[in-house]
């Protein structure tokens, strides 16, 4: 299952029917040989339960249909992998004016191992940003 990270950003759109450009940039560490890490962004509107927003990929191979998130998995077959990871996604949420929208980076391992993502106080660069795109 996906686990929430400390990487979160909140926006309260000022226009109806806006799209939200979501940007997360960090480093993901598979933390071991033959481990795979999946990354998704979860969205919560007005305090509702957060859900993943990764779209379904071509041929159903990545995305929401198989719980792979935005990637098929960051994979280190012969070693631990520490990979720069960037998600840029144009989201089209359904909300009412005045609702806050919270986006949070979530990660999971495909084999039950630990996946590492630096905290916001780490030396690794971390960017969490959302931008309202008026309709």
| Helix percentage range | under 10%
Shape: elongated
- Stretches where pLDDT is under 50 for at least 5 consecutive residues are none
Strand content of the residues, in percent? over 45%
Average predicted local confidence, pLDDT: 83
Number of helices: 0
Query: Strand-and-helix sequence, N→C?
Result: EEEEEEEE
What's the story with the biggest beta sheet?
5 strands, antiparallel
Distance, first to last CA? 34 Å
Structural Rg = 15 Å
How many beta-strand runs?
8
Structural class: mainly beta
What's the arrangement of secondary structure elements?
Layout: E1 3-11, E2 19-29, E3 35-45, E4 51-52, E5 74-76, E6 82-91, E7 101-109, E8 127-133
Antiparallel strand pairs: 1-7, 2-6, 2-8, 3-4, 3-5, 3-7
Report on the architecture of this protein.
- It is a single chain.
- Helices cover 0% and strands 46% of the residues.
- It is built from no helices and eight strands.
- The strands form two sheets. Strands 1, 3, 4, 5 and 7 form a five-stranded antiparallel sheet that branches. Strands 6-2-8 form a three-stranded antiparallel sheet, with no helix packed on it.
- A hairpin with a 5-residue loop joins β3 and β4.
Summarize the structure.
It is built from no helices and eight strands.
Keywords:
three-stranded antiparallel β-sheet; 8 strands; mainly beta; about 140 residues; five-stranded antiparallel β-sheet
